């Protein structure tokens, strides 16, 4: 099976394409016993008979997930819960499995190792049916590894809790349900800002979304709303002026200038098409503050700041959100020409896989 990414959204296309459904993308370790704010939100978005498929395919050791989620969902109105586990890739063609998916109103991907999602259901009838559920108005949720798989590309390897080194990251194709983004999970808890910056440095056309534990984004159409106790970090590399990611050594620490960062809490919204928080839609508000801090007249534009006094640089109008959106579309078009996801495909070692499983097992015990 190819390791090439799903083609990003074409210029002008919605981040969710023509889908009528809802995505609930969870940073992991969501509350399953008390208020269950995120699970309650998932249940509320479901339509019809609220028949849900719990996909535990990401886990090497799925025992215990089904019973835990069945208890968590029972008094939230989700009583028709069926487990989907794919031990071998051929099982993704099983007729009984496909019939269950055809009747489903929602799919919930639990945690584990996101590489297994790619390996076990990528480009299979199961993946196709998950997409069809989303297209017709169903709800698709993913927590932890399941969250990482929602975009066209997913992070499958990269160091946490340290500054990013250029060669220390790898990608695989995701489910392609949400275009134009890269999702990282357990974000603040595992110190993953460095690796998300590294991912965005390699793919500046994509917005990096770092989602804390017990926190989710609810995606409808072009925008998302934050739900939960933590934060969502949005890393935008579209305006980066300089980076060493192309010419630096693989063991060299990443340098990256003029990257934009947004941090959103519960109830706040973000417009994915304009790459702006819904409450501050105009990027000029930020540019004007930066220019004033440098003692420059905002009316002269950002080019005057670059040229400096006496440099002879011509003043240009300040960038607005429309200009940035058009630039984002152009970058997305250029991304279609990518022929490599990363320098070399890198899978997880047995030791790393074991560590991942232990972390997820610990999450279940908490």
Please, could you describe this protein's structure?
It is a single chain. This protein has 366 residues and is of the alpha/beta class. The chain has a single domain, classed as 3-Layer(aba) Sandwich (Rossmann fold). The protein is built from 11 helices and 17 strands. The protein has helices at residues 37-45, 65-74, 95-102, 114-121, 125-135, 145-148, 193-202, 284-293, 302-307, 321-335, 350-365; strands at 22-26, 51-55, 80-84, 106-109, 139-143, 153-158, 169-173, 181-185, 207-211, 215-220, 223-228, 232-236, 242-243, 256-257, 260-264, 269-271, 276-277. It has a 9-stranded mixed β-sheet with strand order 3-2-4-5-1-10-11-16-17, sandwiched between helices. A 4-stranded mixed β-sheet has the order 8-9-12-15. The chain has a two-stranded antiparallel ribbon with strand order 6-7. The radius of gyration is 21 Å and the shape is globular. The two termini are 37 Å apart.
H/E element sequence: EHEHEHEHHEHEEEHEEEEEEEEEHHHH
* CATH homology superfamily: Class I glutamine amidotransferase (GATase) domain
CATH class: Alpha Beta
DSSP strand (E) fraction? 15-25%
CATH-defined fold name: Rossmann fold
User: What is the number of E strands?
Assistant: 17
Largest sheet: 9 strands, mixed
Known CATH architecture: 3-Layer(aba) Sandwich
Oligomer: single chain
Computed CA radius of gyration, to the nearest angstrom: 21 Å
Report mean pLDDT, rounded to a whole number: 84
Within the largest sheet, what's the order of strands?
3-2-4-5-1-10-11-16-17
Model regions low in confidence, pLDDT < 50 over at least 5 residues: 1-11, 302-319, 334-366
What does the overall shape look like? globular
What's the number of domains? 1
| Intertermini distance | 37 Å
């Amino acid at each position: 099976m190819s390791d090439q990414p799903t083609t990003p959204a074409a210029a002008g296309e919605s981040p969710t394409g023509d889908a009528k459904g809802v995505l609930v993308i969870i940073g992991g370790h969501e509350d399953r016993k008390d208020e269950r704010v995120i699970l309650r939100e998932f249940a509320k978005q479901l339509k019809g008979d609220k028949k849900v498929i719990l996909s535990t395919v990401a886990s090497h050791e799925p025992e215990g997930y089904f019973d835990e989620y069945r208890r968590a969902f029972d008094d939230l109105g989700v009583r028709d819960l069926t487990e989907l586990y794919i031990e071998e890739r051929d099982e993704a063609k099983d007729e009984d499995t496909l019939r269950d998916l055809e009747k489903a109103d929602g799919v919930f991907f639990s945690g584990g190792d996101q590489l297994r999602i790619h390996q076990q259901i990528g480009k299979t009838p199961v993946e196709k049916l998950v997409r069809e559920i989303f297209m017709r108005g169903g709800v698709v949720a993913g927590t932890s590894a399941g969250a990482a798989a929602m975009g066209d590309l997913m992070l499958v390897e990269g160091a946490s809790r340290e500054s990013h080194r250029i060669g220390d990251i790898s990608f695989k194709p995701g489910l392609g349900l949400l275009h134009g983004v890269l999702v990282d999970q357990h974000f603040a808890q595992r110190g993953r800002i460095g690796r998300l910056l590294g991912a965005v440095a390699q793919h500046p056309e994509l917005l990096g979304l770092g989602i804390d534990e017990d926190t989710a984004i609810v995606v409808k159409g072009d925008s998302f709303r934050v739900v939960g106790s933590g934060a969502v970090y949005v890393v935008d590399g579209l305006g980066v002026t300089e980076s060493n990611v192309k010419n630096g050594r693989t063991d060299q620490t990443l340098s990256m200038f003029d990257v934009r960062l947004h941090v959103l809490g519960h109830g706040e919204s973000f417009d994915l098409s304009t790459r702006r928080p819904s409450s501050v839609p105009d990027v000029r508000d930020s540019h004007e503050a930066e220019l004033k801090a440098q003692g420059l007249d905002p009316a002269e534009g950002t080019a005057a700041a670059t040229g400096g006094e006496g440099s002879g640089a011509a003043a240009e109008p300040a960038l607005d959100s429309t200009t940035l959106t058009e630039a984002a579309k152009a970058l997305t078009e250029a991304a279609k020409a990518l022929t490599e996801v990363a320098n070399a495909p890198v899978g997880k070692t047995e030791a790393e896989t074991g560590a991942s499983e232990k972390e997820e097992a610990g999450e279940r015990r908490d």
